[in-house]
Specification:
By secondary structure, the chain is an alpha+beta fold. It contains 2 helices and 4 strands, in the order αββαββ. The chain starts with a helix and ends with a strand.
Length: 123
């Protein structure tokens, strides 16, 4: 093999073996099961269904924005929307997290959505 073929093979192999990783979020408490001893009120003004979203736009397949902590940012937005509505909530329960991606030719959007019930923990 000549030198050009070897260098070309190395460059092609390098381009084909790339990767990426992102941190999706950081949480104080998270569980996919019922938590024992979690006591919260469901009376008026102590429970509210909230939603939050964190989106990245892309143009020409180039993402514009930060991929890190997207679930955390969507959850923070959901909690803030409940607090803006007058509830001093501590925790989201019955949480659902969705990931939606779409693109139209050269523009696209990649979103993480969080929805759940914002509740205040009883002391």
């Amino acid at each position: 093999m000549n030198k050009f073929a070897v260098i070309s093979a190395i460059i092609i192999a390098t381009l084909l073996t790339s990767g990426c990783s992102t941190r999706l979020g950081k949480f104080t408490v998270a569980s996919s099961h019922n938590v024992r001893g979690l006591d919260y009120s469901i009376a008026d003004k102590t429970k509210q269904h909230v939603t939050g979203q964190s989106c990245i736009h892309s143009v020409f397949f180039i993402p514009l924005g930060h991929f890190d902590d997207r679930i955390q940012r969507a959850m923070d937005e959901a909690i803030a929307s409940g607090q803006t509505a007058g509830l001093d909530g501590d925790v989201l329960v019955n949480v659902r997290i969705d990931h939606n991606v779409w693109s139209v030719i050269l523009y696209g959007q990649n979103c993480v959505s969080v929805e759940g019930d914002l509740v205040k923990i009883k002391k």
